[in-house]
Amino acid sequence: MPHDHHDHDHPHALLPPEPALRVKALETILTDKGLVDPAALDEIIDTYQNKIGPQNGAKVVARMWSDPAFREAMLTDPMPLLEELGFYGRQGEHIVIVENTDDVHNVVVCTLCSCYPWPLLGIPPGWYKSDAYRARVVREPRKVLAEFGLDIPEDTSVRVWDSTAEVRYLVVPQRPAGTDGMDEEALAKLVTRDSMVGTGIVQAPTQDSAS
Ligand code: FE
């Protein structure tokens, strides 16, 4: 039989079941074989954990809110601009920008694994990688969004985007009321990670003086 195989010759069987242990085991094997430099791995993790984070995506969103020409270009062909901004690289293979409006609310998932726009949002949160989120957001998006505290109006459609190894999505949340006088830097501070995945919205600034 062509597909007859036994567990003992299946490479996965050699690794422990817990993801963290599997990663550690792989790292040890690769390091022992001289295939990776542990310092280089630490550097990559540090970069995506500490130096790159949702602040990059927030800058893009704030500029799209402020600059109509930039917004138009980002919605049409974002890659040249993202490269120019330096928000490009590992796990950012091809980014598609989807914009929330009164008519449509976008939310992003990776049903297969955990593909995510790293150069714009950093390392994905735990819930994004969970089996529950990945399975349920496709099946019952409004219910999942409600659990995140989002009440999407009946006449707003919810669109779920499934990321792949090739295509990653960034959601542009709606600009809240009361932010007319704010510059890009101040606007960027309002933009949360979850709002750029579609599991959050951007709240209006709380200070009365901002209106
Ligand atoms: Fe994935």
Key attributes of the depicted protein:
Nitrile Hydratase, Chain A, disordered N terminus, two-stranded parallel sheet, 211 residues, binds fe (iii) ion, mainly alpha
Basic shape? globular
Strand content: 5-15%
CATH class of the largest domain: Alpha Beta
CATH-derived architecture of the largest domain: Alpha-Beta Complex
Q: Distance N terminus to C terminus?
A: 71 Å
Overall pLDDT level? 86
Tell me which ligands are bound. fe (iii) ion
Number of domains: 2
Instruction: Determine the CATH topology of the largest domain.
Output: Nitrile Hydratase, Chain A
Q: How many strand units?
A: 4
* Largest beta-sheet characterization: 2 strands, parallel
User: Which segments are poorly predicted (pLDDT under 50) over 5 or more consecutive residues?
Assistant: 1-12
Series of H and E elements: HHHHHEEHHHHEEHH
Quickly describe the structure.
With 211 residues, the chain is mostly helical. Helices cover 45% and strands 10% of the residues. The strands form two sheets. A two-stranded parallel ribbon has the order 1-4. The chain has a two-stranded parallel sheet with strand order 2-3.
Q: Explain this structure to me?
A:
The protein contains eleven helices and four strands. The strands form two sheets. A two-stranded parallel sheet has the order 1-4. It has a two-stranded parallel sheet with strand order 2-3. It has 211 residues and is mostly helical. It is globular. Mean pLDDT is 86; it is low at 1-12. The structure holds fe (iii) ion. Fe (iii) ion (FE) binds next to loops.
